[in-house]
Write a sequence for this structure.
């Protein structure tokens, strides 16, 4: 069950990374278009500036969202690792108990 959850988290992380990459490419395209507009518009810099400010705000919002999501995924992975360690310890103790029981049975 834990490995399935870990796989799911890894898939979500991969999807998130792909979305971040798309946003980076989108940013690159917006920067190129902004430069083209600046060259084309010349005197209408106010409009370009407004677009740039909106873009920068969107970029900050996405960065914050990415950081929050990354933190959440790290916490979930940490929690799963703790649960996994508890299960491993529990199973190891049970195996030790069963081995001892078997040795007692054999010696009798």
């Amino acid at each position: 069950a834990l490995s399935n959850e870990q796989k799911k988290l890894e898939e979500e992380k991969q999807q998130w990374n792909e979305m971040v990459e798309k946003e980076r490419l989108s940013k690159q395209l917006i920067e190129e278009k902004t430069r083209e507009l600046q060259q084309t518009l010349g005197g209408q810099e106010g409009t370009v500036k407004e677009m740039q400010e909106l873009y920068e705000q969107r970029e900050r919002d996405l960065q914050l969202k990415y950081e929050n999501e990354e933190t959440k995924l790290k916490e979930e992975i940490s929690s799963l690792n703790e649960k996994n360690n508890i299960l491993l310890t529990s199973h190891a103790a049970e195996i030790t108990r069963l081995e001892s029981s078997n040795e007692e049975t054999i010696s009798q």
